Amino acid sequence: MSKNFNFIRVILSTKSLTVGVVLAIIVAGVLIIFSNKNDFGYSQVDKVDRGELLAEFEGAYLEDIKANGTVVEMDMVAQESEIEIFDGYKTKVWAYNGTVPGPEIRIKLGDKLKINFTNNLPQDTTIHFHGVRVPNAMDGVPGVTQDPIKPGEKFVYEFVPKDAGTYWFHPHVRTSEQVERGLFGTLIVEDEVDAKYSQDVMWLVDDWRMTEDMQVYGEFNTPMDLMHDGRWGNVITVNGKLDEVLNVSPGERIRLRFVNASNARIYIPNFKDLEAKIIAVDGMNVKEVFDFGNLELSPGNRIDIDITIPKDATGKEYQLYDNFRQEENKLAKIRVTGKPVETPEFGFPVNLKVPDWENATEVSIDKEYRLNARRKTGQGMGMMGGTEWTINEKAYPDYDPYTFKYAEFNTMRFTNQSARLHPMHLHGQFFKVIARDGVAVSEPYFRDTVLVYPNQTVDLALVPLDKGVWVNHCHILEHAEAGMVTAVTVE
Ligand SMILES: [Cu+2]
Question: How far apart (Å, rounded) are the C-alpha atoms in residues 430 and 445?
Answer without folding.
Answer: 10
